[in-house]
Target: Trk system potassium uptake protein TrkH
Amino acid sequence: MNGNDRRTLHSSVFRVLVAIVNLLKNKMSPPQLIMIIFFCLIWIGALFLSLPYSSSNGESIGLLNALFTATSAICVNGLVVVDTGSVFSTFGQVVIMIMIQVGGLGFMTLGVMVAILLGKKIGLKQRLVIQQATHSTSAQGLVKLSIYMVLIAFAFEMLAILLLTVRWHSEMGWGQAAYYALFHSVSAFNNAGFALWSDSLSSFVGDPIVNMTIVALFIIGGLGYIVVVDLFRKRSWRKLSLHSKVVLLGSGILYVAGFLLLFLLESWNPATFGDLNIGERLWAALFQGSTPRSSGFNTIDIGSMLTTSQFLLIILMFIGAASGGTGGGIKINTFVVLVLATINTFRGGSQIHAFKRKIGVDTVMRALAVVMSSLAVVLLVALLLTLSEGMLEDHFLEVLFEATSAFSTTGLSMGLTSELSPLGKIIVTVTMFVGRLGPLTLAFALAQKKHTSKIGYAEDHVLIG
Amino acid sequence: MNGNDRRTLHSSVFRVLVAIVNLLKNKMSPPQLIMIIFFCLIWIGALFLSLPYSSSNGESIGLLNALFTATSAICVNGLVVVDTGSVFSTFGQVVIMIMIQVGGLGFMTLGVMVAILLGKKIGLKQRLVIQQATHSTSAQGLVKLSIYMVLIAFAFEMLAILLLTVRWHSEMGWGQAAYYALFHSVSAFNNAGFALWSDSLSSFVGDPIVNMTIVALFIIGGLGYIVVVDLFRKRSWRKLSLHSKVVLLGSGILYVAGFLLLFLLESWNPATFGDLNIGERLWAALFQGSTPRSSGFNTIDIGSMLTTSQFLLIILMFIGAASGGTGGGIKINTFVVLVLATINTFRGGSQIHAFKRKIGVDTVMRALAVVMSSLAVVLLVALLLTLSEGMLEDHFLEVLFEATSAFSTTGLSMGLTSELSPLGKIIVTVTMFVGRLGPLTLAFALAQKKHTSKIGYAEDHVLIG
Ligand SMILES: [K+]
Ligand SMILES: [K+]
Model:
């Protein structure tokens, strides 16, 4: 191949790429594009993970397990059917780590950019929020901001890698420690919850450095793109956007509530807090109270917790983290809007407001659609799992926990994941995909045409409550 | 006492009554009045039931059990801590039956009348719906309509009593049969679910007469005041009010879905359908698929059903029956409005409509408040019951079932009710009370003043989903 040939090839490759982008831009809405990119990335990851070279024993883990793991990694979920640390080779683990970074940080920035730059249907309002939070109005400005976000993320990840390497080097040597630090930092910032220890981070239940580093990473990742950039730019509560204030207040309340409730409840449970001293108990409650915000790591065994605590985790997982972050669930901001709307109705108020700003009716309607469809998905998945996992056996709480964890991309499990039937694995895989995209994105991606009725009907009444 | 004295006494009694009514009218809102009347009736009933004379063995069942039973009867719930047929004397059973009729039919008519006649806060919209459904605009007209409703109810109850007496006389003689027919007809029409057999109606799992009579009664009672009167007056689908159409369509879908799903699911379950022939299975599925619409009777053992079916019953119980009827839950009409609003958002539509009528935003907001607060109550009660009923034991599904059944006034149980701890009994009693009044009535009853902010805030945006 001479220089001329090469130039011709480069030129044709470039033309093909431009053609694909234009095709995508014209033929697809942003939600469709996001869905298809996720779908393709998952299959590419699954093919890599099913290679014999990805397994530590040189035997392929099989396509279903590979597909499950790839979906879990790309969707930053963290549910695992095979133990990440022992079953995968270093190559397999690195593939998982890359998928986590692409699926988490990559989509946090690229996904938002795609939605904004190509945004027609759902883009407008999101664009407004982001522009307000970032004082940026041009497409160029938004690209710059995404790079800003990536740099912030890398800075946090580097700092965490440094701290964890130092913490772990005495136990496993510098090289191994650096690798473990890298893997768990990426997994934590992206709220993926993949760990190289089979009991997650249980060995470090009372370890201040591991606890603080990991918790800080997954909290920042869970706050999301807009809030983090907003915080870095404004550095003043008063100047923050309404979205940031809502997310920060909601998260704060849930973190404190999760910590206090788990500490009070598990103190009665000999199976979890029995062998721990008071310091370890406080760390464990702090860690386990924050982890339902989609992180998915655990320092105490979820299956041994009190039924009450497990149920509490289900509720917290369902609420999840903030929009535009690496976490899932219906989102804290959605939840806060719903609670504000409910309080407003009970008080007989006429406008839903927070921080001296009015929240529009269409925002509440979106929140309503999200919570109703999310509930429907979780309940349907739980119903299907009670059938697929032996319908004459009673393990309802495990099944409800698994369904919520899969949907909210949390990745905690009471132990059902490793025992799933093939059908159960497929159900959970689909749920992880649906949960990461979210019901709104999925609905907009699958919708045919706008069915806006042009007839203005007369208003009529229905009794409520 | 001579004639003059008597006249003076009558006159003073009348003056006192007028004074009380005026006091109530001026000092209390309709929701407060309803709450206080319920509260008083429950305590009066509890005192009667705690009399030794109410027990078949002449020993008082104790105040807590009496309070539980009275709440269950007045709130037409049907959960029982002692067996109605064997523990109570005929006197006790008649007291329960009167409480059911007062709490069900009495409140269906009187409660709506109180809300309409004294209605200020929540009355306006309800009044509109009822006036539309009944073509009545005056207070007098509404009183007349309530009497109309009572007559319809009595007619149905009489017919049912006749049918059931004939059905049962060969087994127990005419007198006993008439008494059993009376008790179960009242219990069925009012969706109370109290039965004189300890296994509810399980002996009649394949009996066409018992199945049809009881199902017809609880379906009519569950449709509610407005729909039944509307149907009797208009006798044409096209002329029905929007509320009636929504209730009838929603109920129809839920009845068919409940029947089909239970038939398909329980056919796999040897513990329930094992000994039944195809006819009995069809009746059982029909009966058990309708009974979560708050009726609370059962012809197959709920505790032996598949986990999937039990979970399905929980969802159906939570949705419940129609507003203004003898059933509970968030109400079918509320559910339909929420589903319509969700579909509208997904389609990018601009108005929520059904049957060529627009449904207003404030109606959707009320529905949202009802579902959010109802979810909160059920989840909180389930959490508390996991603690009160031995927190180291795993009986989560039983507990969630019990909480939903108590809140939705359904009264089905997987078997936990009879094993409840004293604290558990108190929790369930309060839940039955809260569930029958409904979150909206309770919130309006407990609200201090209207906190309507007069400041018009500028609209701002929050990301959703
Ligand atoms: K996760
Ligand atoms: K009932």
Remarks:
- The beta strands of chain A are 352-354, 357-359, 458-460.
- Residues B 76-78, 191-193, 294-296, 409-411 surround potassium ion (ligand 2) (CB under 6 Å).
- Residues 25-446 of chain A form one domain.
- The first helix of chain A runs from residue 3 to 27.
